[in-house]
Amino acid sequence: MTHMMLARAGAVAAMILMIAGCGVDRDPPSATQPSFYQSMAQANVDVDGKAAASMISGYRQNNGLGAVVLDADLDKLAAEQSRAMAARDKLDHDLVRSLGARLKAGGYDAKLASENIGAGYHTLAEAFSGWRDSPGHRANMLMAGATRIGIATAYNPKSKYKVYWTLILAAPADRR
Asked: What pTM does this model have?
């Protein structure tokens, strides 16, 4: 019986070594990761707006709403808001002026618009999850009629939050 137990133990050990060796010939894991996991808590990094539009569109479509597309003008306005909050180290929708006033000053004629801001989220995935789990922010992302978004971050290494976020959802006014 002892001889048989030794043979089994040897066979098990050989299998473990074979299984452990399986990973040796594989390529190392990719150094790249999905952009929605990229940390924004560093200088000179921009949020992936296309990934954000895709993520928000999927969420909207799962809730019976239409998709949104990235809008360069809304991106610019979102960036200005994020930079202003980061510069003052303050989370505030009306820090410089109201969303409506910022849209008007930026020449963006919207028939409807809403804004989500945030601070302390280091990745797009975190920001999206935080907004999705907040009733008011979720309502903004699920605003009926929204067709466009702009999204931006700003980094302040001296802030306890590090990263400030702005997401603007809108529908342009009908042109006549």
From this structure: 0.79
